[in-house]
Amino acid sequence: MKLSRERRKPLIPMNAMSDVAFLLLIFIMLVSLINYRREVKIDYPEADKALRTSAEKNVEIWIDRNGGLYLDGIPTASAAVEQALGELYRTAPDTRVHIIADRNTPYSKVSAVMEILQLLQYRAVSLVVGGE
């Protein structure tokens, strides 16, 4: 007895495709909410003209690789730097402070100087880096 087989085209169930598309849509919506960043719309101020600082109004704090402090090139202890900057801030609050550190200086030494400036509430501080 010969059995005949019918050749059928393979069927793809379309009911499952709508479920997969719906789940994919939910996944994309959740991922986009995770990466959502809230921003505040502000108008950034612009300078009317560029101001150049004069070298007379700048104070340089040098930090060597061993953590030694130099105030305008003169070796100075940490407490003396704090006292000198405090006096300078009282007499000329618009003085700019430049922190210049050696490439191999531990960051803890730079951070200690920055903490002194923070305590004195200095706002015009620059970290000076060199290019190669």
Element order, helices and strands?
HEEEHEHE
% residues in beta strands: 15-25%
The backbone outline, from C-alpha atoms, is rod-shaped
Tell me roughly what share of residues is in helical segments.
25-40%
- Tell me the total number of β-strands: 5
- Given as residue ranges, the uncertain stretches (5+ residues, pLDDT < 50) are none
- Main β-sheet description: 5 strands, mixed
Strand order of the largest sheet: 3-2-1-4-5
Mean pLDDT: 77
Supply the number of helical segments: 3
N-C termini distance: 91 Å
Roughly how many Å is the radius of gyration?
33 Å
Structural class: alpha/beta
Descriptors for this entry?
single chain; 132 residues; alpha/beta; five-stranded mixed beta sheet; 5 strands; 17% strand; rod-shaped
Quick overview:
By secondary structure, this protein is α/β, with parallel strands linked by helices. The chain has helices at residues 14-34, 78-91, 107-119, and strands spanning 58-63, 69-71, 74-76, 96-101, 125-128.
